[in-house]
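Protocol step 4 of 6: record predicted structures for both targets in the notebook before any analysis. Target 1:
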Amino acid sequence: MSRAVRPKSKLSTVRWWNAGDTTLAADLGVADATTDDVYEAMDWLLAQKGAIEKKLARRHLRAGGIAMYDLSSSWVEATCCELAAFGYSRDGKRGRAQIEYGLLTDPDGRPVGIDLFKGNTSDAIAFQTAVDKVRKDFGLKELVFVGDRGMITKTRIAGLRALQGAGWVTALKAPDIAALAADGGPLQLSLFDEQNLAEITHPDYPGERLVACRNPALAESRRLKRESLLAATEADLEKIRSSVSAGRLKDKDKIGVRVGKVIGKHKVGKHFTWDISDGEFTFSRDEEKIAAEARLDGIYVIRTTMTADTADAPGVVRTYKNLKYVERDFKTSRSMTSISARSGITCPAASRRTCSSACSPPTSPGTCARHSPRSPSPTRTSPSPPTR
C-alpha cells in the first residue's frame, strides 16, 4: 500500500507510520511494525512471485497471442549488492554501478512478469530468460515476442526459429537497413512518394515480412542531432589544429591521441577524414558519407513472422510501437525501484529482489481497471504473510 501512496525506502516508510502523520499503519494493524517486520513480509512476497506471475499470465496472455519485453536499469549507491555491476546506463549515470530488470507485459502493457539481472547483463541474454519463462513456467508454446532491435538480435532470432510456435516483431539495425537500400535493393525512397509505409521482401529474411516506415519528424530530429554532433566535433578538432599551427603540439603520436579522444567523444568520427604528420594536422567532413546516412534519416524497418491474416502492415507497425506501454510501465515503477535499489546497502539480498518485483504490479491495476473495471481482486495463492 505504501508503495502506491508514498514510495520511499523501507526505513522511511516505517518512520512515516510511527510519526503519526498518517492513519494508514493503524488502519492496517501495523502501527508498531519495525523494518525487520517489513523485510520479513517482503521475503514472504518473494516466495509467491512465481505463483503470482503464472496467474497474471493466465489472465493476460494467450496461446498465439503477443507478449512484449524490455529491459531497464537503476543505479545504486550500495557497495554490497551482489547484482550491482557497471554496464550500459539507461539512467545516464556514468560511472555508477547499477542493477537491471526486465519486464514482460501483454500487448496493452499490463505487467505479467519481472526479473532482476546483474547490471552488466546484455539485452539479448535477458530476453532469453523471458522466452524460457513464457514457454516453461507459463506453458505458452505459441507466442509472438515483441522487442526492440537490441533485444531481439539475429542470434536470438536464430534461437526462436528453432522453437516451434515462437514468432517475433522487432526492427532492423542501421547497417541492415542500408543493405536493403543499396543499389538494386528493395528499399528505395520512391516507395514513400505517396505514403510513409511500404511492405517489402528480401531473400535474407525467409518466412518474414519487412515493413518499411518513414517518419518525417524523426528524420528532422536525426538531421539536427547529427549536425549538432558534427559541429561539436569540428570545434574540438579546430582547437587541436590551432595548437599544431601554433607549434604547441608537434609530435604526430601525441596529435593522434588528442584526435582519437575527440573522435570518440561524439561518435561521428566516420563522417570525418584527417591527415596527421609531425607538426601538421588537417581534417574535413566526409560529405559523401554524411549524405549517404542522411538519405535514410527517419526510415526504420520492422521484421516480423506475423502473417497478413493476423495483422496488416499498419497493424505490424502498431504492434511494434506498443512497446511504448512497457516504457510507460518503467517510468511508473522506476522511481519506486530506484529507491529500493539505491538503498541496497541496508537491504537484505532477498528483499532487494522483492523490491523490484513488487514495484511492477502497481502499474497493472490502473491499466486493468481501464480495460476491465469489473476485474476480480487477486486471490491469495499461499499461506498468509508472517504476522508479528
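Target 2:
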Amino acid sequence: MIRSACCCKACQQEDISGNYDANVLMMALSSKKVEVQFWDSRKKDVGEIIHRVKKDDCVGLILNTSGAQRKDPDTCKSWILRMVFGEVGHWIAVRKEKDQFCNLNSKYDEPEIYRNDDELANFLEEQLERDIHILIATSMEPGKG
C-alpha cells in the first residue's frame, strides 16, 4: 500500500480548477480507516482489478480523469481549461455494495449500477482505454469491506 507522507497544510489543497490532489484524498480516507493503492494504469488487466475489488476488505474504486483528458480533447472548453489551469481532472467514486458496484459520478443524474463482473469489467475497460488513474480503496478495519 502506498501511504501519503504529506501532512503539512500546504499539501492539503486543490488546484484552481477544484481538482484535489491524491494526497488530500488519501488523508481524508485514512481518517475513515480506508487506505488506497494506486493501480498502475499501464496494466490493462481488468481481470486482476476485478479480483482485487471482490476481496472482502475492498470498499470500492476511485478514478481520476486527468490522464483521460490529455488524450480526449473532445471540447473546446476542456482544451481552454487545460491551457489556463493545467491538468483538469474529475474524481469518480465507484462504491462496492455487497456484490454490485455503484458509480457515483457527480456528472450523472443518478448512480450507475454494475450488477455483475461483466458490467464492471466493461466500465473499467473503457476507462483504461482513456488512460484514467485508478485507486483501489480498502478498509483498514477487519470485517468492514
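Step 5 preliminary note on target 2. The two ends are 16 Å apart (CA to CA). The domain at 9-139 is CATH 3.90.70.40 (Cathepsin B; Chain A).
Proceed to step 6 after PI sign-off.
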